[in-house]
TrEMBL record:
Transmembrane segments: none annotated. Coiled coil: none annotated. Residues 156-350 form the ER-bound oxygenase mpaB/mpaB'/Rubber oxygenase catalytic domain. It comes from the Bacteria. GO terms for molecular function: oxidoreductase activity. Pfam families: MPAB_Lcp_cat. PANTHER family: ER-BOUND OXYGENASE MPAB_MPAB'_RUBBER OXYGENASE CATALYTIC DOMAIN-CONTAINING PROTEIN, SECRETED PROTEIN-RELATED. This is ER-bound oxygenase mpaB/mpaB'/Rubber oxygenase catalytic domain-containing protein.
Length: 398
């Protein structure tokens, strides 16, 4: 890896200081016991220009040499049947599957199970957290969103984008989902190659890409931050909504996403084991990110208005009400400064629904057994996913 020396760019900027000294960043430090400083910055900063070269090579050898649907079918065969050294396939394919079929020594299946159970047990709070904290909060980091702008993700629409994120998350967080050739494993490999395909397309077609400032498209450091969203930020959100979790479940969430990150080709030094490490890693990364820009606001509003466009709910008043509830949760979970930057609309009684949720969770926690909550959560999450897939596969959402 070619080492490019860069320095923290926004560590003295108001948005960075407000987040870490007064806002959710301060809460993350308290939540995790992290010791934040810049002594390890040079250890992480080269990953701003580092990409998954193995995934890129597979895309060049398979996707760029035939029709897209043929290439996808070929990759699916490899995922489901495995690849051996003797198979007559491109060397890049052998390299990819040698890595992903190799179970790392640190993998603990019991922790994977605990992580999956927390995701299911938290039921719709998991989906609220992903949408109204992790996803929309990520839009505040302007450089992180540049690949979405470059690939014209806005034209695809928030319903489709949300459906794809949900499909990936649900399938990665069920029992045994990450076993070799299972559904979550398959999603991880496909997502890895989609990232490579997007990156190579951006580099070829998007001449305005500013690599010096934005890093490589979908670089390894940005990937780390995204997956810290699924672990650290997700846990923080669940806690804010009044959910409790055991030490074992907390370890499990980090372990699950560490393994997903490994399958996605994120370098192991970037994959945190716990909330302390994750917060310290995240602190360094945020110092490279400016606050929201006009693209961030467009992405945020596309997500906020998704409920109005989505035909899952039949009546207009239901859709407007759902949008209102998501806006309430966004204001409750994110810093006010972030909401203002993203121009999240002001609404009345915005704390009413989140506070009611906290009260409900405390009562529900005491009355219903853990196993019953896991079963119910799995069922409810699968129902939401089925609704989204039905809409996006049978309607004119592009």
């Amino acid at each position: 890896m070619e080492v490019t020396i860069i320095q923290p760019r926004f560590n003295d900027a108001p948005h960075f200081r407000d987040f870490w000294e007064k806002g959710n960043g301060k809460q993350l430090i308290e939540f995790s016991g992290a010791e934040v400083n810049f002594k390890d910055f040079q250890k992480f900063s080269p990953y701003f220009y580092h990409v998954d070269e193995v995934g890129d090579a597979v895309v060049k050898d398979v996707y760029f040499t035939k029709k897209f649907h043929e290439a996808s079918r070929e990759i699916e065969e490899y995922i489901r049947n495995g690849v051996s050294e003797a198979d007559p396939v491109p060397q890049s394919v052998k390299e990819l599957f040698t890595q992903t079929q190799q179970i790392p020594e640190w993998l603990d299946y019991h922790l994977l199970k605990s992580g999956a159970e927390l995701c299911m047990r938290s039921n719709l709070d998991s989906l609220i957290s992903l949408r109204d904290y992790c996803l929309i909060g990520g839009y505040d980091y302007a450089y992180l969103n540049k690949p979405l702008t470059a690939t014209e993700a806005l034209k695809k629409g928030a319903v489709k984008r949300l459906s794809e994120t949900l499909d990936f998350w649900v399938n990665a967080t069920r029992y045994d989902a990450l076993e070799l050739h299972a559904k979550g494993y398959e999603f991880a490999i496909k997502t890895r190659l989609i990232h490579s395909y997007a990156r190579l397309s951006i580099k070829k077609h998007y001449k305005q890409w500013d690599a010096e400032n934005w890093g490589e498209p979908i670089n390894s450091w940005d990937m780390m931050a995204t997956y810290i969203g699924f672990s650290l930020v997700f846990l923080h959100s669940l806690q804010k909504l009044g959910n409790t979790f055991s030490v074992e479940e907390e370890k499990g969430i980090f372990h699950l996403w560490k393994y997903v990150g490994y399958l996605l080709g994120i370098p192991e030094p970037l994959l945190p084991d716990n909330k302390k490490q994750a917060t310290e890693y995240f602190y360094l990364w945020t110092s490279m990110q400016p606050p929201s820009d006009k693209d961030s606001i467009l992405l945020a509003h596309s997500l906020l208005n998704e409920s109005l466009e989505n035909p899952i709910l039949k009546f207009k008043f239901q859709r407007k009400n759902l949008r209102y509830l998501h806006i309430c949760c966004t204001w409750f979970l994110l810093d006010d400064e972030v909401c203002k930057r993203l121009q999240v609309p002001e609404v009345s009684n915005r704390n009413l629904f989140p506070k009611a949720k906290i009260l409900f969770n405390k009562i529900y926690d005491q009355l219903v057994s853990r196993n019953a909550r896991i079963k119910r959560g799995n069922k409810d999450q699968m129902k939401v996913l089925e609704d989204y897939l039905r809409i996006t596969k049978t309607s004119n959402f592009h």
